[in-house]
Design a protein that fits this description.
The structure is a homodimer. Chain A is elongated, with a radius of gyration of 20 Å. In chain A, helix 1 crosses helix 4 and helix 4 runs antiparallel to helix 6. Chain A has nine helices and no strands. By secondary structure, chain A is mostly helical. The structure holds a DNA duplex.
Chain lengths: 214, 214
DNA sequence: CCAAAAGTACACTAGCTAGTGTGCTTTTAG
DNA sequence: CTAAAAGCACACTAGCTAGTGTACTTTTGG
């Protein structure tokens, strides 16, 4: 949605082509989300991308291909964003509650909202010929979290016998619920999201924090 | 899916009509789930229901109406099932872990699987003119759970300052994750579901059980 | 400047689908 | 038995959409 149209100036022969391609994918993504796969006509996509229908077909061949490319792009963006959120927020030395809250909040508000994750779920539930890309998108980020949780357990901050399970529980309590909230009410009320995340982190820590030396 | 076709014998003038109607809704539900709203043609629905297309239109007028009626039916079934699961499994005297596990398992395996809840989510994410029925389906069961959790807190078994939040967390940790599992892998591996539920109940109790008089 | 690449405008096909009209047959109530 | 209700077979329209073919224009590298 927020992807730029990019490179209006002197694109060079190759870059111009890529620019159009990106514009088509932008338009397609928006329309697939808004209308669903079937209802988003190729004519509408072309119009929105300000490109001729013929160009669309020259680039992608058939409609299904457009859809797949959109999925790939969204998937890449999502995985990358979660990756960097883990690396930058879930740093070893930091206070656990603070780190987890920041991580959850960042994933939901920066990466996702009005976008990638929700987008992905909505899109994948549409098409009936999508290879198991859908599974992958939740598997990969979860593996990354799993590793961090294992490290935290080793460091004595967490008590997660099964880091994989802990990661799933964390995701369910924070990101999952936040996305649910975003999904049902479309009040992009950021305050509410923050509350949901904070509450989730709270419950998570009660269940998984090492019994304190109070 | 598992709804019976019902009343093959001497239906009476009225009952015969209702029988056909139900058969049409059964067929429509199955096809909407399998193919999505757009791709499930009225002809296909009629064929599957073993009914003439004309009869379909005589009963429902237009395709969108069929969809709405299907949603209503699924919604009613779901709410009813959760209701009775709460009343029959989450009984006051019972051991908490046992009760919660039985409840979660029942909701996922009896009510839902191969059906209502997943069905509902899949369906509602399809149509772009569904009034906020989608929200209602998660609101109602959650309110019911909330009440029980409040009672359990009053009885001293739970420590849920905000019973509504506790209910959301419980649902996310157990039912939500179980459905996720069912959704990605279609291995209807019941054993795995049971494990997921048990793990979720475990984490929930660690976060919400009253600090024990060990 | 020029040739090729990229893009455009537009007309056209082939197929599918929602919804209707109509006359015929079956079922059921009284 | 009979009339009406319910259902059926079938033909037909109107509209939309994926995808193609083609001749024309614009852009860009050398």
């Amino acid at each position: 949605m927020s992807r730029a149209i990019a490179a209006v100036q002197t694109p060079g022969r190759r870059r111009r082509s890529e620019g159009k391609k990106a514009a088509i994918l932008d338009a397609a993504e928006a329309l697939f989300i808004a209308e669903g796969y079937e209802r988003a006509s190729v004519d509408a996509i072309a119009a929105r991308a300000q490109v001729s229908k013929r160009t669309v077909y020259d680039h992608f061949g058939e409609k299904a291909t457009i859809f797949l490319k959109v999925l790939e792009r969204v998937n890449d963006a999502l995985v990358g964003a979660v990756q960097s959120a883990i690396e930058e927020e879930l740093t070893p030395g930091r206070d656990l509650r603070e780190a987890l809250t920041a991580f959850g909040r960042r994933v939901v508000t920066q990466t996702v909202p009005s976008s990638d994750y929700v987008t992905f779920r909505r899109l994948t539930s549409q098409h009936w010929a999508v290879p198991r890309l859908a599974g992958a998108v939740r598997e990969r980020p979860e593996r990354m979290l799993e590793e961090r949780f294992a490290a935290l357990t080793a460091g004595g901050e967490l008590m997660a016998a099964d880091p994989r399970l802990a990661a799933r529980h964390f995701t369910a309590l924070t990101i999952g619920l936040a996305l649910d909230t975003l999904d049902t009410q479309d009040s992009k009320d950021e305050a509410e999201i923050v509350t949901v995340i904070a509450d989730g982190v709270d419950a998570f820590l009660r269940a998984y924090r090492r019994p304190g030396p109070s």
